[in-house]
Write a structure and sequence with these properties.
The structure holds two protein chains of two kinds. By secondary structure, chain A is mostly helical. Chain A contains seven helices and no strands. The chains are: A mainly alpha, B mainly alpha.
Chain lengths: 175, 171
């Protein structure tokens, strides 16, 4: 365990959020790299558990960063991981929102959208594989993950039921 | 005040993705936006860095109440989940080591990984079936998921190329 350097974490997250086209899932692999691989602030399992807890809470999925901060350093940690998320939204979004309301079909905006969408999908897929490797230790775990994905792709159902089913499987000792 | 309450309500009911609840609250309950305006705001929100519904919150708050409207909306949208998540963090620190809690969390985390995987698959199925978008998607995946390079450098290298080629192709 390293000592938590909150200001460095704050700056890192702030920089991440400014490139986080595609939102919280796109920066998941980099947050994992930072807190688990590079600085070893959390174990792989703690990271997975914290991410999961935040998914079960109401509100934007991104709150897993707040929970990481809280777990590492209490209130100041929670603030240091939440404020960076708000900054681009309150600056860039207002600025660009003003512009795009006037010129919604500007070709440059379409090119940005078309160009960046595949990048986002690649980043999110990286996030999914990082998480998969962090949570699964045997074939039964991988099977649960893949079956969940298949169910959600085919049918639309409330993810909370699936999370509850996962909890039951875990308590029953199946996975 | 209305903005604060509406966004509080949206965020507190949005388990597993806020988009559905945001549309219900803004378009159907309050009738502040039409469906078309909602879709336009959302597109802008997705174009920009950061969580798309948070960006949408800023845009709607700003249109309806200027700067203070945007601030109040964000406070409603992020404030409550912030407290809820910290409450969960307290419980986790208290009880996280119990074997049953460990097992339940272990099972849930496998499902959570599946949920993320499903979202990616759905989005990828909507990509055009052409070489360029898939090439960039795969490059981004390899750089981040396999090589584990820092995201900042990867995006700085890939994003300008991707946008430039999309601009050239005008597809």
């Amino acid at each position: 365990m390293e000592r938590v350097d909150l200001s460095a974490l704050f700056v890192h997250l702030l920089a991440l959020w400014f490139v986080a086209v595609g939102g919280p899932s796109a920066i998941l692999p980099d947050i994992h790299r930072y807190v688990v691989d590079v600085h070893q602030l959390l174990s792989n399992r703690e990271f997975a558990e914290i991410y999961t807890l935040a998914q079960a809470a109401p509100g934007p999925n991104v709150m897993y960063t707040t929970l990481i901060g809280w777990h590492l350093a209490g209130w100041s940690g929670a603030l240091a991981t939440t404020i960076p998320l708000l900054v681009p939204a309150m600056t860039l979004t207002l600025f660009v929102g003003h512009f795009t309301e006037r010129y919604p079909d500007a070709p440059i905006l379409r090119a940005i959208r078309r160009g960046l969408t595949p990048l986002t999908i690649g980043l999110m897929f990286a996030g999914a594989t990082v998480l998969m490797r962090a949570v699964n230790h045997d074939w039964r775990g991988y099977l649960t993950t893949v079956v969940t994905a298949a169910v959600v792709v085919r049918l639309t159902c409330n993810p909370l039921w699936l999370l509850a089913a996962g909890a039951l499987l875990g308590i029953a000792g199946v996975v | 005040m209305d903005l604060f309450l509406t966004f509080s309500r949206i965020t507190l009911s949005s388990f597993g993705g806020a988009l559905f609840w945001a549309r219900l609250g803004l378009v159907e309950r309050q009738r502040w936006l039409t469906d078309r305006e909602f879709a336009e705001f959302l597109t802008i929100g997705q174009l920009l860095p950061g969580p798309n519904v948070l960006n949408l919150t800023v845009l709607v708050g700003y249109r309806l109440g200027g700067w203070s409207g945007a601030a109040v909306s964000v406070a409603g949208y992020v404030g409550w989940p912030f407290l809820v998540v910290i409450g969960m963090g307290m419980l986790y620190q208290q009880f996280g080591a119990l074997p049953q809690v460990q097992q339940a969390l272990g099972g849930m985390s496998k499902v959570a990984a599946g949920l993320l995987l499903a979202t990616v698959i759905k989005l990828a199925m909507a990509l055009p079936h052409r070489l360029r978008p898939w090439l960039f998607g795969i490059l981004a995946f390899i750089a981040i998921g396999v090589m584990r390079w820092p995201l900042l450098w990867v995006v700085a290298a890939l994003a300008p190329c991707a946008v430039f080629l999309a601009w050239k192709a005008r597809d």
